[in-house]
Structure formats: structure tokens, C-alpha cells
Amino acid sequence: MLTAPAPDVDRLIIGGKVRQRRRTWARVGVAAAVALLVAGGAYGLTRVGSGGTAVGPAGSPSPTSTPQTYRDTGTTIQPGTYRMLVDENDAGAALYANITFDNTAWQSAGANDPVLLKANSNGGVAVYSPLGLAAGTGCRSDNKLNTNLGDTPQSLAQQLAQLPQSTVLQSPTPVQAFGRDAVHLRLRINDNCSDWYRVAETILGAHGITYDPVRAVVIDFWVVDEGGPVVIETWYEVHSPSKLVDQIARTRDSITLSTVG
């Protein structure tokens, strides 16, 4: 997966949508409370009510008191807590994700999203407020985006469930995650693009699947409301070892959101 700068044509397409989607966020400091269902892992799911899923962590790493600024250096991410830009509003307030890495297997890898590299598999995490979602074939060469995005977690999750070249493994479901209401879904994407598959356009650029040769990827999305939908995403290759998936889940469990004026 990578986040790469988008060409000017995409910015022209998105332009008018950005101001509409940027809101002022209230400060939040929530401990993440979501976990991925992994065979043989330390996480579990329990049903709540008639339609939700309560998810609990199995021991998250303790973040450092002062997060470092995450930078796309293309190198190993040193253990610690980092602050990553998610979005900005017209008033100059920025929404950040604070995320803790507890080992040196994480890489910035020349991308704005952290990548976990282990043996012959890898995965990663991402947090973003989408400006557009994949449309057409989803391939970068197709250069098509859906910029008419839903303005609630429920509506955006339904659009994520319709991403090109995807199979829904878990339908959008209300859950308790990150200390609040959220909507969770899981997709498998078989990337058949000759270049690469763009999942979403974000404030930092295009976020997508860049494997060569083509590989299938499982993506989990949790959509929460921060004055507008914000996506917390994890991804990993199909048939990845449980240790890698568990590490991604543990790192995701460290995520908190905050605003800086």
C-alpha cells in the first residue's frame, strides 16, 4: 500500500468537495477498543444488542507523552508514538491520529502510511478522511474517483462496500470502536490493475495497493464520526501469518484522535 502525490487533474475533480467536507472537530482522546478477529489470536468479538459488535483489545502498548511527527522517510520507524495528519479544516485546525509502534518491523517505505514487513508478507494501517473513493475499475490508470461521498459513517461505509474489484467478507455493521459508535466492514480486493489500485484520495494524496505481481488483500475499515466520516483502516495480504495480523491489530489498538488549532 502507498500514499503518493495526486496529479493536478484529481485536485481539480475534488476541489469543490474539500471545503464541504472539512469540519471543526471537538478534541478527543479515546483509547482504541477495536480488535480484529484472528484465528488463534488473543482477540474476540461479542454481539451486543441486535445489530452491533463489541470489540475489545488484549493489551495495547502505552503511548509516549509527547508524540513525534510522523515523516515519510522511506526508512525503519523507530519504536514510539507518532502524530499523523488526517485532515484540516478551513479554520486552520488539524485532525491528527496518534499511533504507537512497538518494534522495528514497521517501515515508512516511501509511503505516507506505515507498512509492517515480515518474511514474505506485509500489511499496514491508515487513518484518513477520504476526499474520493475508487471508481470505474479502481485502477490508477482509469483515473476515476467517486467524490460524491456520504457524510455519515453509515453512508460512507456502504460506499466502501462497493469498491471496484472487491468482495464483501463482512457487511457494514454497527460496532463500538475507539470508545464510540462506528461502522465496520471487511473486503477482499483482488488487484488486477496493470499499474496500481487506488482505494481513496486523501489530503496527503492517493492511497492504494501497489503490489507487483498482483496479490489479493484483505482490508478492514472502521468509519467513525469526527465532524464528518473518518476511516481507520488495516490491511494485509491474504494468507498472511497470524502473528503479522495480530501485530497490525495491536498497533491499530494504540490509535487515538486529537485536534490541534
Our measurement of the CA-to-CA distance between the termini, rounded to an integer number of angstroms, reads 30 Å
Structurally, the number of domains stands at 1
Count the beta strands: 18
Q: Main beta sheet, described? A: 9 strands, mixed
What gyration radius follows from the Cα positions, in whole Å? 17 Å
- Multimeric status of the protein: single chain
Give the DSSP E fraction (strand runs of 2 or more residues). Answer: 35-45%
Overall geometry comes to globular
Helix content: 10-25%
Descriptive notes:
By secondary structure, the chain is mostly beta strands. The chain has a nine-stranded mixed sheet with strand order 2-3-12-13-16-17-9-8-7, sandwiched between helices. Strand 12 and strand 13 form a beta hairpin. The longest helix has 14 residues. The radius of gyration is 17 Å and the shape is globular. The N terminus is likely disordered.
Summarize the structure.
This protein is mainly β and 261 residues long. 13% of the residues lie in helices and 42% in strands. It has three helices and 18 strands.
Key structural traits:
single chain, 261 residues, mainly beta, 5-stranded antiparallel beta sheet, 3 helices, globular, disordered N terminus
Which helices and strands occur, and which strands form pairs?
Elements: E1 2-4, H1 8-21, E2 44-48, E3 52-56, E4 68-69, E5 80-88, E6 94-101, E7 106-107, E8 115-118, E9 121-128, E10 132-134, E11 145-146, H2 153-160, E12 166-177, E13 180-190, E14 197-202, E15 205-209, E16 216-225, E17 229-237, H3 242-252, E18 256-260
Parallel strand pairs: 3-12, 4-5
Antiparallel strand pairs: 1-15, 2-3, 5-6, 6-18, 7-8, 8-9, 9-17, 10-11, 10-14, 12-13, 13-16, 14-15, 16-17
